[in-house]
Design brief:
The chain is about 55% helix and about 0% strand. It is mostly helical. Keywords: Membrane, Transmembrane, Transmembrane helix.
């Protein structure tokens, strides 16, 4: 089911990008929008390239802490895909 949702999301994203990028479509980007997009991409690329070395040096536990905050100890990664069948339900208390 997760793969189906991912595929539907990917197809929707491609559809919306097509609306913005294909000339003649109702939502096609104008020149000022293209310039803003290029600037946004350049800024993002600059920040990514300046920080990527620092992130690669972090351990998986540190990354979990930075991404999940105080919840990094509660969320456990399964060892195998089948362990999702044994995950707690919404009514069960998660021990951590």
């Amino acid at each position: 089911m997760g793969k189906v949702k991912g595929l539907v999301g990917t197809l929707c994203a491609i559809l919306f990008l097509g609306l913005l990028l294909i000339p003649g479509s109702p939502a096609f980007l104008t020149l000022p929008c293209w310039i803003a997009l290029a600037c946004w991409l350049a800024i993002g690329l600059y920040f990514y390239l300046t920080i990527v070395k620092d992130y690669k040096q972090l351990s998986e536990e540190q990354l979990d802490h930075y991404i999940l905050g105080d919840f990094h100890n509660i969320i456990k990664k399964p060892l195998v895909a089948d362990s999702y069948q044994n995950r707690p339900t919404a009514n069960e208390k998660i021990s951590g």
